[in-house]
Each structure stands twice: as C-alpha cells, then as structure tokens.
Amino acid sequence: MALTTDPAAPAGGAAPSANGAGRAAPRHLIDLLGLDRAFVLGLFASAERLRALRKTPGAPRPLAGRTAAMVFHKPSLRTRVSFTVGMHELGGDAVDLTAVEVSESGRESLKDVAHVLSGMCDLVVVRTFSHGLVRTLAAHATVPVINALTDFSHPCQILSDLYTLKRAGRDLDALTVAWVGDGNNVLHSWLEAATLLGFRLRIAVPDGFEPDPGLYLEAERRTDGRVQRFRDPAEAVRGADVVYTDTWTSMGREQESEWRRVVFAGYQVNAALMALAAPDAVFMHCLPAHRGEEVTDEVLDGPRSMVVEQAENRLHLQKALMLALVAGPDGP
Q1: pTM, rounded to two decimals
Q2: Which GO annotations describe the biological process of this protein (predicted)?
Q3: Total domain count for the chain?
C-alpha cells in the first residue's frame, strides 16, 4: 500500500486544538504518522485520570447521550470489549454493525454510509481488512473515525502499548524496542510511533516479509537512523529493553499458516532469545498468541511478560482517545 504523507490526508486529519495551546488534535485516528507528540502524551495523562476514577462514585460520564457505531469485519475480543465497555463507562452507548451494513461492495456507497452514520452517531470505530475503507469513511464523515485495526495498521494497539510502558516507568525516548516476526500491521504502527517518540526500533523479519517499503523508508528518514532492520533475531534483540512479537499468520491468511511456520521457525521468542535482551527487558505481544509458534509458554506466562497489562490498558487508553476525539480538548 502506498504511503500517504499529505498532512491534509485523513490519516492525520490534524487541526489546531480549540484551546489555543498549540497541540494538534486530530479529527480522526487512522494512523500514527503525523500525530502531534503532545496529543499522544496528553492521551496517556487522560487515561491515567480515567483509570483512577473508574468504578468510583465520582467516575465521569462525559459522553452521556453520545453513541458510537462499531463496525467490525474481523473477529475481536480485546478490541470489541475495550471499545464497547469504554463507551459505556464514559456514559455513552454503542451500536454494532457488520459487513452487511458497511462494506466497499455493499448495498450503499461508503460515502452515503459515512453521511448516515454522521447524522445519527457521534463516533465511528472500524475494525476491518481494507485500510482504504477506513480512509474513505473518514474522508466523508463529519464525526470522528477510529481505525481499530486494518491489514495496514493497528494504531490503538501501539498507543496502548506505549501507555503500558510509560506506566511501567520506562522512558519512551530512551527505549530500544526489538520486533521479531512478520512485517505486518502492528509493526507498521510501531514504525509510525518511532517518528513521534525517541525510542530505537530494531526489526528482525525474514526476507520476503518486510514491512511496507514506503513506510519503512519514511520512518527511517524521520527518525535519523533510529529504525534498523536485521535478518538475525539475535542481533535485533541483543540489549533491547522490549521484545515484541505477533502471530506469524494474520487474520485472513490462515491458508498460509503451514508454510509460514517453516519460514518463521527461527523467529520464535523463547527463553534463549530473551536472555540476549537487557536484564530488565520485558516481553510484549498484542494477542491472540499462537503458543509454541511465535512465542513459548515459558516467555508468554513468565515474569517478564506484560501481555495482561497490555490487554487491560486498551480499555483505559481508548477511553481517553474516544473522549478526546468526541468531546475535544475543552470537552466535558
């Protein structure tokens, strides 16, 4: 997929915030490239405030009377639950939609769907295959659109992961993150995040499974060499503060799973590989995990694993995100 760097494109959708503080607040959250660093750090602070008040008598309900349209074309556990529960906890409601109602080849054009949803809802959350579908909805919607995962990127996951690391006391401008595995949508969002913060990103992917070349080159350019590619996982992991992996076979490519297991056999995160990382390094995985393939039980269930925290923090970060996009920086 071609990289879009046009600042007017829906991926950024950034406009000056209403509070005049100079912080760029996006209209939509489609990708991380082009986001304002201060906006991202503000999300972390907001997530902490919402987390502290959760399930207390003073828990805020700033989105009371607001509704989110949840468009899900892919199976989902963490994404569906975190967005739906998050909307309810903020006082709002959610309506579920599928490919029957929203698709690129459905009963109605995406332009018409965007107009209809904008008139009835306050937010559109989309988890789908086609990145173009999300961009098209964002181009025509007058309410915020959130990319909850496409085949190209997974920005909410990486925002939540960065929040998780910050909560653990890690310096996001001094970390070294090692990615081991497929050059997939999650890696794309890590590449984009590296342009916002100062961490180093080392990626180890087999030949033929590299990330989008345009995005990789753009991230490399914007980070002044903080993004590096290795073929040997050991080189990428050595001394790293974070070791991250994902399934070798993404949703929709299940027919490739057998031969992918052969290609990726040397890219498993196991105890031997983790031993090469920094002594206080942590392991991260966005889940679901294929135990015994990209990661062993010993690592996934071990003391250095942050996967449970990652999953819960999807709720807190996405509550902050929905609040920021719907209510704005000066919202309730």
Answers
A1: 0.92
A2: citrulline biosynthetic process; L-arginine biosynthetic process via ornithine
A3: 2
